[in-house]
Design goal:
alpha+beta
Length: about 110
Amino acid sequence: MESRESPEKSPLRLVDVCPDLVGEMAALLRDSHPGDPIADSISGLPFHGVCRNYVLTAPEGTPSPWVIALERAAETVFLLGVDSSRAVVTWVDVLDGRDPPAASPRQA
């Protein structure tokens, strides 16, 4: 028998909430950090909501000692908080004037 998760219990992903944002971040990461596995992980990031205008991709308060600045035409458009392993994006700050997504995460 095939097992399936209920859609209500599936975590909402950042790409579900703002696919254009995810595509742009991945492209900028690939251009500025060739070979960095973070670019490939962007589409799978969970969406934990918005807190103080930061898009959270990890629970609020997750340590993020590293920051990656992504630029377009010599202007910083995104800041990405990265955990201590330098492998997991924990928050995104959108600096190009776009509003953070208004969706809230589904409750598990």
